[in-house]
Amino acid sequence: MTRAALASLLGLACALLLWQPTASAAYPPPGLVTGDIGIHDPSMVRTDQGYVVYGSNDLLEARISPDRTAFTDAGSAFTGPLDWWGEISPDRNPWAPDVSFHNGRYYLYYAVSNFGQNNSAIGLATSDTGLPGSWTDQGMVHRTTAANDYNAIDPSLLVDDDGRWWLSFGSWWTGIKVVEIDPATGKQFPGDTALHPVASADGGIEGPALVKHDGFYYLFNSYGTCCAGTDSTYRIRVGRASSPTGPFLDANGVDLRNGGGTFVLESHGRWIGPGGQSVLSDVDGDLLVYHYYDGEDNGAPKLGVNLLDWSSGWPVAY
């Protein structure tokens, strides 16, 4: 290892130590992040150039960081709106990105919709670098209309240990669904219309994040209402299953399709309405990445990041 590479690793290690949040009696505060951290529905990936976070609106706004602590505004994923978005949403404003790296390529799933409607679609873009402005759109993956009883937004990709790909998504209506994805295209297999219902709840559910850990599949969801500043009621709950299509049960054995869900994070102190979450496996463990509304900063939306402790068999933020 070169001296420069060693220095870089030591610098990252020091930054991660500084990043660690302090403990609290109930839920922890977010880990230390600084700079341009205003964002909704964040999804983070580690690239050769450092960390990149994408969020809703502004053509999927981007933040970059060399050390996962200091973030700067890096523009947006896309350089301009796409024509096909206008078929779904007149303002052509994409939401809720999900970014990940597989088989030497970066994948960015995202949603196009109108707030409160289920005339929606999930799109896919790919990139060799994962950096803002580098994405090539691959078109539509899944669509819903007012004739459907579910909503095609808030995508989250899981690549299984055996190479099978699964996409979870959904918002309100009849809740969260899972479909299988063709790894060759990043879209559904031709003719495969199987739609697996995995979670629902009165009072709102959306923003799934599907991950696998120690032989179990874990489904994180945001419950309640988003995007209302300090009046937001988002909270993050989770269930687990032995299959990516469920059934997902909480720690008390309640099915997530029947309103179950073990709490991972909810409003505490100045950190209001945490949700819009994703999970990133990083060098020091798995990260819960989410937004919250800052009760001490006029309800401004901000990036939250915490490590997850899995020792109990359930994810615990710390």
TrEMBL record:
Residues 1-25 form the signal peptide. One of its GO terms (molecular function) is arabinan endo-1,5-alpha-L-arabinosidase activity. Gene3D superfamilies: Glycosyl hydrolase domain, family 43 (2.115.10.20). Keywords: Glycosidase, Hydrolase, Signal. The record marks D154 as: Important for catalytic activity, responsible for pKa modulation of the active site Glu and correct orientation of both the proton donor and substrate. It holds the Pfam family Glyco_hydro_43. It comes from the Bacteria. InterPro entries: GH43_arabinanases, Glyco_hydro_43, Glyco_hydro_43_endo_a_Ara-ase, Glyco_hydro_beta-prop_sf. GO terms for biological process: arabinan catabolic process. Belongs to the glycosyl hydrolase 43 family. This is Family 43 glycosylhydrolase. The lineage of its organism: Bacteria, Bacillati, Actinomycetota, Actinomycetes, Kitasatosporales.
